[in-house]
Amino acid sequence: MPIYVTFYHLDQTMVGKTEGEITLADLMGYLDDVEKARAVGYAKIFDCLSGQSNLLPDERDAFAKRLAAYHARYGKQAGPFAVVAGPDVVHRLADLQALVPPANTRPVRIFGDIHSARAWIAEQS
To answer: Could you report the per-residue pLDDT of 18-72, keeping only the tens digit for each?
Structure first.
């Protein structure tokens, strides 16, 4: 699976890192992993510097639906979400933009590097 997730239960944070081509199954698996680990409330960093996605329109729609259900269920209970996309944010997030939840549900920001994302996550606690 090209999304690797590490959970840091002591400080209630998690880091997801992409690698290679990201599929719909990978994205669905990421959400499953968060729920199975009972980490919905954790602060999250999603590092997509080493991955890319070329989802088909119906796959984007399916993931957007799943993400909407996730946010409807957990809302503000979900922890802050930092996306690391680097300087090529438009290309890298062409299909992964659906990962970024509506701003009214929880704190969300996109960063150019992991260090800035970690600093922001630390400020959110």
So the answer is: 998 889 999 999 999 999 999 999 999 999 888 888 888 899 889 888 988 888 8
Residue 79 belongs to domain spanning: 3-124
Give every CB contact of residue 79 below 8 A, 6+ residues apart in sequence: 12, 13, 40, 41, 42, 43, 44, 106, 124
- Supply the CATH number for residue 49's domain: 3.30.750.24
CA angle at 33 for the pair 112 and 74, rounded to the nearest 5°: 80
Give residue 87's pLDDT.
Answer: 72
Nearest to 96 by CA among 108, 111, 85, 81: 85
Element (H, E) at 4: strand 3-8
Question: Which DSSP letter does residue 122 get?
Answer: H
